Structure formats: structure tokens, C-alpha cells
Amino acid sequence: MYTPFPSGGAEPGTDVSVKIDAFPAVFAGGVPLETAQVLAVSQRPLAAAAFGDAAPVAAWKTTPAWGIVSADDHTINPDVERFGYERAGMREVVELAAPHLAMIAKPDEVVEVIETAFAAVS
């Protein structure tokens, strides 16, 4: 969903969000429906400009990084996730049978990846 907002510049800004009724299936599949519904109505939109802004520094070029591929993701194609992680040279990529919100659907597995990464750099 695209919602214009005044940006203070010549052009209005645009917020991007997921339609509330589509959110559970598109963004939160695999998450309990009641939780997905709460997330749907409380989501914070993303400014569309963020999709085109270049990062001034890519931390993954100098900092060890780990990634999680959400194999059941309906928001970002898992092949795109895999490609990005391979291109970035991630130290380790873990694939989970999880939706986009893997941290909610599979919290123990996500914590394990974080703890593994922490142990490797400590």
C-alpha cells in the first residue's frame, strides 16, 4: 500500500506498508493468526525513498556477517536472499523453514544463529 505524506520538499514522500488484510499471508505466514493481526494493525510504514537510498558504507565488507534465509518467505523471494548473502560473502547462512518474520515464527533457531555469530567474534 502506498500512502503519500508531506515531506517538506517539492515532492511528497510515500510510505509503503502491507494491506492489513493481506499482512498475515504475505508478511506473517506461519505466525499465529492473532499475533499476525496485531502486527498488521501496528506495522510502521517504510519510506519508499529507502529502496533507492545508497548506503554510504557497507558494513558487511569489513565486518563478519551471518544470514538467515527464510525458505517460506512470501515478502522477499528466498532465492534473492540466497543471492544477496552469497554476493556479500557471509560467513555462514542458515536456512530456516520460516516465513519473513522468522524471529517470531522460529525464535529459538534465530537466537542460535545470533549466539553462533557472537561466539565467533568474541
Automatic annotation (TrEMBL):
SUPFAM superfamilies: alpha/beta-Hydrolases (SSF53474). Residues 22-113 form the AB hydrolase-1 domain. Gene3D superfamilies: alpha/beta hydrolase. It comes from the Bacteria. Pfam families: Abhydrolase_6 (PF12697). This is AB hydrolase-1 domain-containing protein.
